[in-house]
């Protein structure tokens, strides 16, 4: 700032000095040029009077080194010239001052030399006989005067610049002294130039804005800290140099470290080569994933690159506990083993009967019985496969079409479909309640009610009763299936919705069940984001209630 003030003062001083010199020299030059012109006019008047009286004799006797007199005839021929031979001079009729004098009695012109360092002023007057007398004088131009005065001008300029430099230095320091002592933390308390008041007010306003922004940043940082502190997932923020910027408690526990690790290289916290490779891969490709095991648990690490304006500024490491998912995967493997067993049993029965028939070991009168057995086992096999496919679809969370469904209508259709099977055991299926419409998946609702009613018939007493009720409770639709069957012991109630689980395996074999019906009910209800309630006592029957939201827009996929 001081240099700028000093430089500005020096420039202004130099500019003022040069302008002063130009103006003064211009004024003086103009003044003396006017004086010279008037003197030339006076000299012409005297010379014209003398030529009118004495003619050429006056001119011949005239001795002057400063002025030049030329007598020109009316046709432009030179009669006499005080400095040149008139016979060698060309016609002057086209000269501006001669032409003006012949027309207006007087004429005047100014001509410069080719170097512009000298000028000649001409004045002409027409005489009584029609001839013209011209007088001229040569003088230096302003450029010649400047060249002649260049030395004193430079001396004056140097002295003026030195004085201006000293003065500019003092003034700039004096100006900057109050500015250097400003207290920018309290801008409105400064006693300084009035011109700085708007600036200080603006600084004060910016201070308030900065304070507000800092408070907002602090609040957001506190929110971020509180959110990350409560996360069950591990979170680690890294900069572009792999330095830890933030780490939450879940990550501290996972990587067995302390809060003091912030500011250190992540390699000092986690030395696993695969994890380091995943982080470097994320910096290069944007994303990477890796699984690790810690203390009997399994974790999935997701590493994502963070960019700002196209520049990599860091990475975020998220650690998810996937122990339950791994457990579910093991369960699926167990399910596969169970499916293999369940499929193998009817197939072996079918193959055994077919082999006996093929080898002619079956009597003709027993052929129908063996064919019926094969058909029964094949039907059981198809039912099992259908149930497995349905469970697989529910596990995968396949998209299913939602539509407006009348639950009472669905329950009535299911009851009608099971009427023949129920009639064999003299069991009555009754549907009660009201019309309840819900936006849901018709196929899943049909399977839920069918499996519940099918189980209620299979595990009921001869001459028993199955009651299906449809109703509303606040914003929920309720489907209730009540039977008068054998009931479920308390120790089995928590597991009856598991796949292939049977309370009484021998009775289940007799009833032809696959062990997947209630499991399908559970997964279908979860798919529709509903709830199941079970009430049962041995020998007194079972009540299973399904609660579904009437205004359901989203569904939850079952993992």
Can I get a quick summary?
This protein has 15 helices and 17 strands. It has helices at 2-54, 56-61, 96-104, 142-148, 150-180, 197-229, 249-254, 273-285, 323-358, 367-396, 407-417, 419-424, 442-458, 505-511, 517-527; strands spanning 67-72, 78-81, 106-112, 118-126, 132-140, 234-239, 244-247, 287-294, 297-308, 311-321, 403-406, 428-433, 437-440, 465-473, 476-483, 531-537, 541-549.
Structure in words:
The chain has 559 residues and is α+β, with helices and mostly antiparallel strands. It has four domains: 2-148, Beta-Lactamase; 191-229; 230-321, Beta-Lactamase (2-Layer Sandwich), CATH 3.30.450; 399-549, Heat Shock Protein 90, CATH 3.30.565.10. 49% of the residues lie in helices and 22% in strands. The protein contains 15 helices and 17 strands. It has helices at residues 2-54, 56-61, 96-104, 142-148, 150-180, 197-229, 249-254, 273-285, 323-358, 367-396, 407-417, 419-424, 442-458, 505-511, 517-527, and strands spanning 67-72, 78-81, 106-112, 118-126, 132-140, 234-239, 244-247, 287-294, 297-308, 311-321, 403-406, 428-433, 437-440, 465-473, 476-483, 531-537, 541-549. The strands form four sheets. It has a five-stranded antiparallel beta sheet with strand order 2-1-5-4-3. The chain has a five-stranded antiparallel beta sheet with strand order 7-6-10-9-8, sandwiched between helices. The chain has a five-stranded mixed beta sheet with strand order 12-14-15-17-16. Strand 8 (287-294) and strand 9 form a beta hairpin. Helix 13 runs antiparallel to helix 15 (517-527). The chain is rod-shaped, with a radius of gyration of 58 Å. It starts with a helix and ends in a 10-residue tail after the last strand. Mean pLDDT is 81; it is low at 506-512 and 551-559.
């Amino acid at each position: 700032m001081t240099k700028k003030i000093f430089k500005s003062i020096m420039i202004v001083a130099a500019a003022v000095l040069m302008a002063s010199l130009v103006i003064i020299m211009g004024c003086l030059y103009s003044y003396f040029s006017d004086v010279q012109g008037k003197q030339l006019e006076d000299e012409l008047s005297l010379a014209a009077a003398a030529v009118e009286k004495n003619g050429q004799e006056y001119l011949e006797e005239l001795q002057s080194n400063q002025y030049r007199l030329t007598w020109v005839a009316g046709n432009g021929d030179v009669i006499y010239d005080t400095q040149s031979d008139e016979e060698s001079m060309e016609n002057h009729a086209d000269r501006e001052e001669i032409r003006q004098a012949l027309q207006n009695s007087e004429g005047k012109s100014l001509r410069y030399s080719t170097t512009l360092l000298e000028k000649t002023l001409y004045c002409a007057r027409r005489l009584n006989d029609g001839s013209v007398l011209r007088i001229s004088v040569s003088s230096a131009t302003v450029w010649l005067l400047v060249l002649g005065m260049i030395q004193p001008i430079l001396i004056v300029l140097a002295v003026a610049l030195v004085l201006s430099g000293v003065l500019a230095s003092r003034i700039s320091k004096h100006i900057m002294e109050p500015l250097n002592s400003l207290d920018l933390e309290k801008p409105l308390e400064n006693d300084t130039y009035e011109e700085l008041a708007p600036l200080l007010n603006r600084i004060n306003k910016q201070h308030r804005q900065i304070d507000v922004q800092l408070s907002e940043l602090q609040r957001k940082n506190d929110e971020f800290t509180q959110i990350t502190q409560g996360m069950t997932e591990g979170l680690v923020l890294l900069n572009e140099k792999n330095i830890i910027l933030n780490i939450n408690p879940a990550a501290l526990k996972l990587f067995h470290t302390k809060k003091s690790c912030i500011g250190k290289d992540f390699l000092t916290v986690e030395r696993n080569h695969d994890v380091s490779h995943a982080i470097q891969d994320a910096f290069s490709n944007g994303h990477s994933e890796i699984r690790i095991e810690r203390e009997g648990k399994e974790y999935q690490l997701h590493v994502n690159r963070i960019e700002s304006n196209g520049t990599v500024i860091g990475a975020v490491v998220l650690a998810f506990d996937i122990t339950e998912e791994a457990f579910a995967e093991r369960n699926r493997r167990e399910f596969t083993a169970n499916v293999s067993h369940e499929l193998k049993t009817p197939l072996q029965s079918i193959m055994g009967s077919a082999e006996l028939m093929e080898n002619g070991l079956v009597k003709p009168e027993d052929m129908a019985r063996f064919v019926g057995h094969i058909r029964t086992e094949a039907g059981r096999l198809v039912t099992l496969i259908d149930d497995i496919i349905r469970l697989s679809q529910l596990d995968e969370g396949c998209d299913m079409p939602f539509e407006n469904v009348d639950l009472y209508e669905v329950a009535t259709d299911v009851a009608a479909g099971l009427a023949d099977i129920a009639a064999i055991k003299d069991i009555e299926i009754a549907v009660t309640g009201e019309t309840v419409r819900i936006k849901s998946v018709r196929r899943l609702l049909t399977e839920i009610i069918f499996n519940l009613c099918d189980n209620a018939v299979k595990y009921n007493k001869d001459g028993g009763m199955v009651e299906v009720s449809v109703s509303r409770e606040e914003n929920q639709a309720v489907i209730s299936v009540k039977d008068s069957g054998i009931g479920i012991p308390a120790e089995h109630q928590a597991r009856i919705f598991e796949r292939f689980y049977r309370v009484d395996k021998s009775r289940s074999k007799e009833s032809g069940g696959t062990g997947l019906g209630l499991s399908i009910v559970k997964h279908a209800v979860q798919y529709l984001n509903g709830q199941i309630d079970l009430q049962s006592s041995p020998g007194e029957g079972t009540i299973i209630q399904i609660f579904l939201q009437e205004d359901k827009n989203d569904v939850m996929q079952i993992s």
